[in-house]
Design a protein that fits this description.
Number of helices: 11
Largest sheet: 5 strands, antiparallel
Distance between the termini: 84 Å
Structural class: alpha+beta
Number of strands: 18
Order of helices and strands: HHEHEEEEHHHEEEEHEHEEEEHHHEEEE
Strand order of the largest sheet: 5-9-8-7-6
Radius of gyration: 36 Å
Length: 367
């Protein structure tokens, strides 16, 4: 008959600790683990909170330090009956007597304006979370249903969730609760929010005030681009222009290439998608033709000045630079775009006259 023996380790693990041992070990851990809590608090000064509630609210940052890590969290506290209590968002069907007790005694819900003021305060105390999307925020609404004011804070399956405030005939709040099963098909319309858009007069007055406050000085440093290729291919004059903007608070600088033709000044925009480039055709000399490789080389040299290939991220685009002819199309390759090439496409008639100019990101890389 075999005898089953327990291993020494199993037997040792099963032995209970004496109170003295437990205390010694616990004390050793306390001495090893230095744990410190810091708090940083600020009093909220929101007008809506002051008008709706009788007690101040505090934003508190709690910082927990130990030997191994630091952890930080936020909390919202208020003074209830002389004690600091944390305000936590409700997440089930429940009465909210403490919230009701925090209200100003003279605060009433008698009109949509009162309701929107309360909603503004609730947005501060119980903000709608958008971590996983705006679905709840899109449901936000205020409904009046008899002696109930419903503050919808999101969806809960096929229903709605939110705060319910009951009032008497005078608008005094008699009850506050949170509900997860507010029917989504109530035969009442949400209260229309007040128009918050500005009139044109208001917009202009505000804009004028900002301009008066922030006087912007603009300086330009202009250099005429002179190149035989530009002169032979284009009728417009081109200018490399550095624009410096200064005001009381900051200074910024940008560089653009401007074209002037018949007294009209146009900024040369670098194309970045599949698009026609009619201004480039407009700037070409009427007698400039693409009939030979030499003509194409002149045009490429001009394009290098107006649209230089960036080498900031390496020379990959520069390595693909090329001129190709495909029937009546001349392709000026300016780089690579995923598996294709990108660049300008000049289409000509049989005489070499340029009919159209386009930019493409989908030029096949037929090596």
């Amino acid at each position: 008959m075999a005898t089953l023996l327990s291993s020494p380790t199993q037997a040792l693990a099963a032995e209970p600790l004496t109170p003295e041992e437990r205390q010694i070990i616990h004390q050793a851990v306390l001495e090893k683990e230095t744990f410190k809590i810091e708090t940083e608090a600020t009093r909220r000064t929101d007008d809506a909170l002051a008008r709706v509630f009788s007690t101040p609210f505090y934003d508190v940052t709690i910082i927990q330090h130990s030997d191994n890590h630091t952890q930080e969290e936020s909390a919202l506290l208020t003074n209830l009956d002389g004690q600091m209590v944390e305000l936590k968002a409700p997440n089930t069907n429940q009465p909210l007597p403490d919230l009701q007790r925090l209200l100003n005694k003279d605060f009433q819900i008698k009109s949509p304006q009162d309701a929107f003021l309360l909603e503004e305060a609730m947005d501060i105390l119980y903000p709608i979370r958008t971590t996983f999307g705006n679905e709840d925020l899109n449901q936000k609404a205020v409904l009046e249903n008899g002696n109930q004011w419903l503050f919808i804070r999101g969806a809960f399956f096929e229903d709605l969730k939110g705060f319910v405030f009951k009032t008497d005939a005078s608008g005094n709040i008699t009850d506050a609760s949170y509900a997860l099963r507010i029917p989504a098909n109530l035969p009442i319309q949400p209260i229309k929010r007040p128009n918050q858009s500005l009139t044109e007069v208001e917009k202009q007055a505000i804009h004028a005030a900002i301009l008066k406050r922030d006087k912007v000085e603009i300086e330009t440093d202009i250099t005429k681009l002179e190149s035989k290729a530009l002169i032979r291919a284009f009728s417009a004059q081109f200018y490399d222009t550095t624009i410096t903007r200064r005001n009381n608070n900051y200074s910024s600088e940008s560089e653009v290439i401007l074209a002037m033709q018949k007294g009209q000044v146009i900024e040369i925009d670098r194309p970045s998608t599949n698009q026609p480039v009619p201004e480039l055709k407009k700037f070409l000399k009427k007698d400039f033709q693409l009939k030979s490789r030499q003509d194409a080389s002149i045009l490429e040299e001009a394009l290098d000045i107006l649209y230089p290939i960036s080498e900031g991220y390496g020379s990959e685009d520069m390595e693909h630079k090329a001129i190709r002819q495909n029937g009546n199309q001349w392709l000026f390759i300016r780089g690579v775009f995923f598996r294709d090439l990108m660049g300008f496409i000049f289409e000509t008639d049989n005489s070499g006259n340029i009919l159209s100019v386009d930019y493409s990101l989908e030029i096949p890389d037929n090596k």
